[in-house]
Design goal:
single chain, mainly alpha, about 70% helix, globular
Length: about 425
Amino acid sequence: MSSVLTFTFIFLLITTTLIRLWLGRRHISYVQTHRKQVPAAFENNITLDAHQKAADYASAKTRLVIIEAVVAALLLAALTLGGGLQLIDDIWRNLLPTQEIIRGALVICSALLVSSFIDLPFEYYKTFVIDEKFGFNKMTPAMFLSDLVKHSLVGLALGAPILFAALWLMQGAGQYWWLYLWLVWSVFNLIMLAVYPTFIAPLFNKFSPLKDENLKQRIETLLTKCGFKSQGLFVMDGSARSSHGNAYFTGFGSSKRVVFFDTLLERLNVDEIEAVLAHELGHFKHHHVIKRIVLMFLVSFLGLALLGWLINQPWFYTGLGVTQKSDYMALVLFLMVSPVFLFLLRPIMASYSRKNEFEADDYAANHASAKELVKALVKLYRDNASTLTPDPLHSAFYDSHPPASIRISKLAAYTS
């Protein structure tokens, strides 16, 4: 059984990596092929220069993703079959031979730290080379470092308790440890949804109450009409880091709030902002957030149940390059290799997400203005340099939102 797992893992790791490379090359080729002409639906609103900028931006990001996919695959192979995780475990076993929970936490943190060091150059390059080249980056190296430190400290403060709880339950809660851990994980996520807007997000951005009284009144009228109660309307200083614009709902229960990037407010007029907000309200009215939470809980339940079985199978460890069986090694192996086994399910999840976006667009068209939403989307596509001509197959795997041309054509039916 051990050799079967090893062969399956190698096959899927190579196959999924090759698919990633193939999809990336397809995407670049498709985007560049359609670079010379603006799609007919956008030719009155987006210039050829803007269209070509978006094509080149998409291609540059995809080239980086291709390199990152190869490096990630090599790193995963090195940590598993190459013995990297076992080496990390051996080092900590020599230093802490008896304290298994602490040793387990240090092994997992060490593995995550290695992965983070590999990811860091790619993030830096995207920010200070690609985004800088195309005029989106507003960050300084000092801000980048500050964010990195903050993210690390917040991740440690939030992740350490749940990690220790997981290892403690795995060690001493009996055969149904995975069920207890699932309950703890679910409660933790619900708490995070409630506290994130108020206590965590302000560590990285400034949130100010919306001051435009005309816009505020329009938004509050729409919120009342749609039966949405929020803690407030806020403007986020997105321009401090990037020129990209966005708007979103955040929080859960009584902590819900509406957040606009300051860059979005600068580019859209009141009618367009109202249409964008109506789209976001569509997600709320169709219970998309709740459905995603339920789906996340279901997936985590099934995943932990599977881990509860795998943890007692010696072949699970030896088949992935680990010679010494332990609870914490089962957990880190499961977390690292699961994406390889689940990659081919990505189109299903992306399709579900795009279905939600269409439903939110329908809601916006019926409760605000489809015409204004189209105008807003076109501005966002242009200003964010979002390609109007993604490769359909690449989009099916990676895009949570429908391609621009399909989305606009569906909304145009409301205005005809």
